[in-house]
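Thread: Newbie trying to understand structure tokens

Hi all, I'm a second-year student working on a class project, and my supervisor (Dr. K.) asked me to get a predicted structure for one chain before our next meeting. I've only ever worked with sequences, so writing a 3D structure as a token string is new to me. If someone could post the tokens and maybe explain what I'm looking at, I'd be very grateful. Here's the chain:
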Amino acid sequence: MSWKDEYPHLYELFAASDVQNPDNYFARMDGLHSPQAVQSYRDLEERFARLDSTSRQNIIDRAAPFVTLRDIETGRHWTALFDILNEVNGYVYLQDLGYREVLFIPPTSHPTPDLHGSASFGDALLEVKTVNISDENLATFGIVQQAHDGLPDGLKQKLESDYVTACRQLHSLSVREPTRRICAFYISIDRQLAFARSNLQALIDFMASIESDCEIYHHSQYW
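---
Reply by user tm_fold:
Sure, no problem. This is what the structure looks like when written as tokens:
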């Protein structure tokens, strides 16, 4: 079975991009992949399948130019692509909360949230914030790492700054009340931090300490 048949929605995104570009993220999909890579593709395919057709086309239109945008110089490769694809996670999260009508909010002249969900019990606005691994972590790829206990100040500052920005965006729109305003963080945690399990609780505690009138949801690729 070709990957076109196995991952039909991801293939739609591939087909909308420059398929001949050697830096195309999906160029090696027919090759061998680790079990972890296969699972990540399956998870992404399942999330894409949950998008309504209009929302899926919205993501494809916005993500297609980034499928071939590979940042080799800094080692971040297709980070820009996944900054957009994480909005699919936000869409699915709102569905899981019970919001049956979920839409991407069209861009305006001022910053707004990414998503609007509605249900019989009220509305929700959601802003997706992606936090990528640090430059220091990138510089140590290929080197054996030791666990780092405690969240670095740089990560804390990044999370708090993004949260303040997200709250500003979440309050920029008025929808029917009651409205849940949610900042959803998708965090690529540094490996040194992931090695120390205590950092998960440290992250939970820190997020609780900065949370004010906008809810915080956070997910890391390791935890």
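A couple of things are worth pointing out once you decode it. The mean pLDDT is 91. The chain has two domains: 1-70, 97-223. Feel free to ask follow-ups in this thread.
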